[in-house]
Known about the structure:
The chain contains 7 helices and no strands. It has helices at 13-18, 22-37, 43-57, 60-63, 75-88, 95-104, 107-129. The relative contact order is 0.20. InterPro entries: AhpD-like.
Amino acid sequence: MAKITFSNEGNTPFQQLLGHNKDIMEKWTSLEECFFYSSTFTSELKEEVRRTLAFNNGCQYCMAKGKPSKDLTDSKILIATEIADIISKNQLVNDEYFNKLRNEFSDSEISELLALICFITASQKFGALTDLQMTCSII
């Protein structure tokens, strides 16, 4: 059971926890859709980043959706998950890693990737703080 009650607003357990503040929930959901419907990155890259972050951010709801893949070979996914891992451990992304990013991505892509990592981290931290579990059912 989550640490706060579910509101009547929203379509998912996460949204219903944010739904106590409807305007925030709607804007959060809109930003989430912007990231996940963006064609900048493959759905596989976004999912591997999400999985990497889930285990470092401690979101049980997100961890239940699967562990990071161990057999990644795509260079873009490899560096994206490396950067996600570093950021979610509150470490600095040093010049070496920024150079790796620049070898694989344009500045526009780097900007979107870093924003995606920060957004997913914020979502997962909220889930962890409220103790959102996969077994939480919405009203």
